[in-house]
Amino acid sequence: MNTNTVKKSLKDSVITRWAMLLLVGFVLAANYYFYDALSPLKSTLTKEFGFSNTDFGLFLSVYSIPNVFLLMAVFGGIILDKLGIRRTGFMFVAFMAFGALVTAYGASDMYSNNGVGYAFMSSIFPGYSPELKMMLLGRFLFGLGAETSIVVISKIIVKWFKGKELALAFGVKLGLARIGSALAFYLSPILIKSETGWTTAIWFAAFFVTSSLLVFIIYMMFDLKLDKQVKPDNSVSESNEFHISDITDLLKNRSFIYVTLLCLTFYSAVFPFFSFSADFFLNKFNLTLEQSGKISLLMPLGTVIFTPLFGFLVDKYGKAATLMIYGSLILTMVHLAFAFTTLSPYVLMVVLGIAFSLVPASMWPSVAKMVDEKRIGTAYGFMFSVQNLGLWAFPLLTGVILDYTNVEGVKPIDYTYSMVMFASLGILGFIFALLLKREDKLSGYGLNLPSNSK
Ligand SMILES: C[C@H](N)C(=O)N[C@@H](CCCCN)C(=O)O
Predict the structure, then answer these.
(1) pTM of the shown model
(2) Intervals of the chain under pLDDT 50
(3) Domain coordinates of the chain in residue numbers?
(4) 3-state SS track over the chain
(5) What pLDDT, in 10s, does the model give residues 150-162?
(6) 13-231+240-453: CATH architecture
(7) Whose alpha carbon is nearest atom 9 of ligand 1?
(8) Ligand 1, CB within 6 Å, residue ranges
(9) ipTM for this model
(10) Which of the listed residues 85, 96, 150, 388 should we mutate to test ligand 1's pocket, taking the one with most ligand atoms within 8 A of CB?
């Protein structure tokens, strides 16, 4: 045998590694679809179950509770680095599917007609409707699974693409996720009119997530095969002891702290805004639900094109740290324009899509430069838990601000103060992006260098 022969593995095949990306991209698209599927239904939920703005904010934010207060994304990341991709991925995608089904059940007639759990939910916290409580439980379980499954998928991308087209792969993966979001804003307003009743929109979303569990199982077979090729002794394949120093080392890394704070502020100005956006356009521009849903979906659709494009540019030319600064600045300007002008929401949503491509396409691959691959699950998990603090607090705060600054039942709802809050988050993100770039000159991680030069 020629010992100089370099053994090729599955990940050396371009077709196989991009096919893997499509598989996990499907799981991610289902995840994002469900996350957003109920946003265009805000007014329907008010009509059917009497949801207030705050109730709706609570429903959105409960997704983040397991990740912030139980540190599930951190534990998920640690479990991932210890148990490996297959076991952790299966477990958390299953949680996500179960949570989605429970949410749909909570909105269904089956449940309202004294179904399982109805009597119990009616007996606790009587100030809230039993439907809201069951849906909150479902979204809680969904959030518990969804965030860690994104961490798992991120590690899968690093596993197959590190040293190759990493930033492009992250960009395409995010593009697939955003197709899920865009589809939600397009399909939900259509599905609520279905003959089988408005809850069809939620059941469809829940079955989409459930089907992604099957797709993940297919991915697991390839993952196993790759591990057998790369590490013949599979028994030790991805096992890794967790040390508390894994977290303390991260906390001592200033670049990591700045990127985490940027992640917190930037995403808090995007996702919570996006969840309210259909209702915002409907109220500010006096549109129908379908029209406003179509404006909302322009942002994720824009990112489908721009995120892979910026990912490709970051791989080739670098400049990730600089692009994060531009992205935060554009985000701030768009929110100010939403607050104080009547500029075309179509144009502004596309511009927001550019901002929402610049930062993710540069930020996530940059983390892989700061952290050892063996600890990438812990690092992403930590970032997600911090980020979820914002994804918990800001939808809730948006709902509270709306209820506080508007008279109940009076239309149109005024969103100005909420938009100012989102713009302020954009400014904070801009400051953290500047600090990150300055720190990079000292740390030498080379965030502004092309992907294959580090
Ligand atoms: C919401 C979720 N925690 C998140 O941050 N999603 C990111 C993608 C994260 C990819 C991490 N490698 C997004 O931009 O959607």
Answers:
(1) 0.86
(2) 1-5, 233-239
(3) 13-231+240-453
(4) CCCCCCCCCHHHCHHHHHHHHHHHHHHHHHHHHHHHHCHHHHHHHHHHHCCCHHHHHHHHHHHHHHHHCCCHHHHHHHHHHHHCHHHHHHHHHHHHHHHHHHHHHHHCHHHHCCCCCHHHHHHCCCCCCHHHHHHHHHHHHHHHHHHHHHHHHHHHHHHHHCCCCHHHHHHHHHHHHHHHHHHHHHHHHHHCCCCCCCCHHHHHHHHHHHHHHHHHHHHHHHHHHHHHHHCCCHHHCCCCCCCHHHHHHHHHCHHHHHHHHHHHHHHHHHHHHHHHHHHHHHHHCCCCHHHHHHHHCHHHHHHHHHHHHHHHHHHHHCCHHHHHHHHHHHHHHHHHHHHHCCCCHHHHHHHHHHHHHHHHHHHHHHHHHHCCHHHHHHHHHHHHHHHHHHHHHHHHHHHHHHHHHCCCCCCCCCCHHHHHHHHHHHHHHHHHHHHHHHHHHHHCCCCCCCHHHC
(5) 999 999 998 999 8
(6) Up-down Bundle (1.20)
(7) 150
(8) 147, 150, 154, 174, 177, 267, 360, 364, 380, 384, 387
(9) 0.94
(10) 150
